[in-house]
Amino acid sequence: MEMFIPDSLLKTLQEIGEIGGTDAYLVGGSVRDLILKRETHDIDIVVEGDAISVAENVKTYWHGEIQVHHQFGTATVTSANPTYPKIDFVTARCETYQQPATLPNVEEGTLTDDLLRRDFSINALAMRINSDDFGDVIDITGGIEDLKTGTIRVLHDDSYFDDPTRIFRAFRYAGRYSFRINETDSDLIREALPFISDLSGERIRNELDRILLEDNATEIVRMLSEFDVFEVIFKDWRITPDLINGLKTAEDSIKWSSIHLKDDTLLKKNIRWMALFGLDESGCLPTYHIEALCYRLVLDHQLHRIAGHQKETVCEEESATVLRGVFEKVGYGLADNTTFDFINGKWCLVDSGNKSTYIYDEGDIYKIQTPLATYSGLKNVLSKIVEDTRDSEIYHLLREFPLETLALGCTDGNLSELHRECINNFLLRQRSVKPIITGDDLIQWGEEPGEHFQKILHYLFAAQLDGRISCKQDAFTIFQEYKQ
Ligand code: ATP
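That is the input. Now the predicted structure with adenosine-5'-triphosphate docked in place:
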């Protein structure tokens, strides 16, 4: 089997092979990518037997570091040599599913068990790394043939039922490699679609996130929508041609940013999330519901707590009225058409009037902060900018927004030319303007330090942004006017 193994990886694998011998194998995505002669990132080694002890020995040999998860029989080793990739060691395992869409029972197994528990034939390949057989590929499910013909195929008919995240994964690989989903698999996917609803929000969100990281995300979303996957996630979520165009705008924005914002790090997937949710002008898309659904179960770290514990216990029947009262009491008045859904033991409130989504969970109120919320927030703020709005005002309106939101705005044809120009000017010029005057200058001008400093500096910086100050002398004149 002809493969492309870059020199640095070759050395790494040979050294692991010296230590792990015939018990250790390279597995999964990296074997697939080496055969496809593509770059590979995650290096997974499966060990028949004790993966942790092989990992410990590799760590000692590399003078590196190790993180061990005894509970899962796994370990991650980082070499002291920074050119070596991080390596994950896993004990070979056998998995059995009791019910669709739940996590499997796991036991120690052989390499064959480990390959047969995998999602697709193209991911069920292993490569020997011991010195005698280095590079031999073990293919018990026809993965090499599927790589040749560009086919995505699961290993047994129950696979998509057992784990419906594989539906998302199938389209992700098909889109990434321009592969075709085998006909039998298409039928199996259609049958297993309803089981997507049994997945937790977090797992769905995670799969969508991974899709939106792909360069070919637009095509993958289009394929998923052809199979009505989005409607299963949320009943009114249809990916219309408009949304596909929205995703194209996201790609324009990503391209634009890679040229103009070279020194910044932008999260491509957030730009695509915004495009998928936030560009709909028709108002038909139940964006806030979808947001709530996709984000709500990532509760603790995703949600921003806005109000502490309220004493009321809200039971399902008397919900809406009581909850309305609770929200009013803490200063969050809800619009009349707010919807209240009790999902997985938590109340989800979608206030489309005020463009806000809240979660009420055992007395705590959380406001959901999502890419969509920021994009609609941007549109809201832009409506305040007219032809003669001062630069300083524009600066203060735009500086709160994440770069991804502004980058999308820059290329969104639905925004006016004036607004796009303002964003462009902010990103490329205004945001890097440094104040000419600092607190030290104020002290030199005889001002006593104190709380009022912030106000004066703010005033002078605004004057600078508006072009009234271009040197310290100008600033001093304006400072004296301010003091009178
Ligand atoms: P990528 O190239 O996108 O990182 P990958 O192939 O490395 O993808 P991971 O999600 O990192 O995929 O998983 C590593 C391997 O674990 C896969 O190649 C596959 O063999 C197996 N795997 C991952 N998720 C599943 C799943 N849901 N069901 C069965 N096997 C899976």
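The two ends are 83 Å apart (CA to CA).
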